[in-house]
Amino acid sequence: MRTVPRRRARPRPRAVPAAPSVAAAVLTTAVLAAACSSGGPAAPDSAGAPEQADGISCSYPDSGSPARPVERPASLGVPDAGTLPVTLRTSAGEIGVTLDRASAPCAVHSLASLARQKFYVHTPCHRLTTPPAAVFLLQCGDPTGTGAGGPGYAVQDEPPAGLAPAPGATGKAVYPRGTVALSNHGVPDSGGSQFFLVYRDSPLPPTYSVLGSVDAASLPVLDAIAAAGTDGASSPGDGRPLKPVMLRSIVLPSG
Predict the structure, then answer these.
(1) How many other CB atoms are there within 10 angstroms of residue 243's CB atom?
(2) Are 4 and 185 in contact (CB under 8 A)?
(3) Rounded CA separation 218/201 (Å)
(4) What letter would DSSP give residue 216?
(5) What confidence tens digit (pLDDT) does each residue in 160-215 have?
(6) Strand, coil or helix: 231
(7) Residue 136 has pLDDT above 50, yes or no
(8) What are residue 165's phi and psi, to 5 degrees?
(9) How far apart are CA 165 and CA 81, in angstroms?
């Protein structure tokens, strides 16, 4: 996918309830019967997280053959608040990332689902851009290593808000150093599994959903990857990392 311009509280004691009336017992029986006839509660998604009563709805339509067998995430009750800390374990070192559900809930939900299914295990970071390229990023998330692979479904766009306009670059915004964003095919709603990490402020069209940010302590890992250079196979400053970078896994909090 060559995308970026080549992108408890303690519970209170409960009062002992009164014995149910006959009518209540009849109602309870009816509810249980209905649940049984409809298959019971909603099944959990492929990542093991049940659909929630609250949250938002996301769309994950088919987009071709998956690079690895994978089930798409649940599309209902997607969390749209809070953060999710994850660790990218790479051959160049660990990179801590804080995912922001409020910024791109559908994209974060998808990435977390794929990580739990081990979609990202032992996948190459296939693209690195360095000067003289105008953008500065490391792109990962394609098991095929070609830039074209994905999960077999698409992720809807969640354009970022609050990015500063890029000076002298009409229609572009500054994606700050440390930004983690979802790659796409350059057309609407075409994100997938691939994402990029920005190691220096970069002017980009504001169409890349912002997943979160690299923790400050991990930025030197990105800097070292960039310093090793790129092979420039696509264009000057744009190609594969000269020193190959392997994404060994994305680790999510347990529980």
Answers:
(1) 14
(2) no
(3) 16
(4) G
(5) 999 999 999 999 999 999 999 999 999 999 999 999 999 999 999 999 999 999 99
(6) coil
(7) yes
(8) -60, 145
(9) 26
